[in-house]
């Protein structure tokens, strides 16, 4: 696997271990140990994935993510404390693509990184149709962007793919398990609200520009994209 990875974590020992491991798997790995340093690197360089710790000096991970999302949609995996649901949910609300609780297995982290980079590569090289359009919502598959009445929606890569998967099955129910497998690259774990949070973010961003209801919740199972 070849990927440019930025680690933003003040635990230098962990950073060194992750750098050594990910480099052995073919990644180019860079590290920053404070919020401002990490944000500057994230904004001025191009990375395939950013590993972002919540607890950082000067600017915490949430502040870094919020500032990053105002300008770039680089995929972000949050590194959260084990069992801290608030950090996970808040990170997803701010636009994180995924999270992994500390302490974590290096192989699991690598699998998360591969899932994100594989999804992006697939979308870039396997475009079937130029666009989808329903009511005032349009999805451009070539550029991986969405818009309402020509106004771009600031979707993260994960949010875009959630919307894409729902649109591909317009009029048909899509389970949370399916969305977790196809978008996040992992089985849906008990009490994992990642899919719900990403879909909620998509809805909020659409609602800022349109009164049309596109995505309906199917209680206990999943979602359906409503046909025009």
Q: Characteristics of this structure?
A:
228 residues; alpha/beta; Rossmann fold; Arc Repressor Mutant, subunit A; four-stranded antiparallel sheet; 8 helices; 23% strand; CpxR-like_REC; transcription regulation; OmpR/PhoB-type_DNA-bd; cytoplasm
Characterise this structure.
It is a single chain. The chain is an alpha/beta fold and 228 residues long. The chain is 43% helix and 23% strand. It contains eight helices and twelve strands. The strands form three sheets. It has a five-stranded parallel beta sheet with strand order 2-1-3-4-5, with helices on both faces. It has a four-stranded antiparallel beta sheet with strand order 6-7-8-9, with helices on one face. A three-stranded antiparallel beta sheet has the order 10-12-11. A hairpin with a 2-residue loop joins strand 6 (131-134) and strand 7. Helix 4 runs parallel beside helix 8 (194-207). It is globular, with a radius of gyration of 17 Å. The termini are far apart. The mean pLDDT is 90. It comes from Pseudoalteromonas viridis.
SSE map:
Elements lengths: L3 E5 L3 H13 L3 E5 L2 H10 L4 E5 L7 H9 L6 E6 L3 H10 L3 E5 L3 H20 L5 E4 L2 E4 L4 E4 L2 E3 L3 H12 L4 E3 H9 L9 H14 L7 E4 L3 E4 L3
Parallel strand pairs: 1-2, 1-3, 3-4, 4-5
Antiparallel strand pairs: 6-7, 7-8, 8-9, 10-12, 11-12
Protein name: Response regulator transcription factor
Main location: cytoplasm
InterPro entries: CheY-like_superfamily (IPR011006), CpxR-like_REC (IPR058124), OmpR/PhoB-type_DNA-bd (IPR001867), Sig_transdc_resp-reg_receiver (IPR001789), WalR-like (IPR039420), WH-like_DNA-bd_sf (IPR036388)
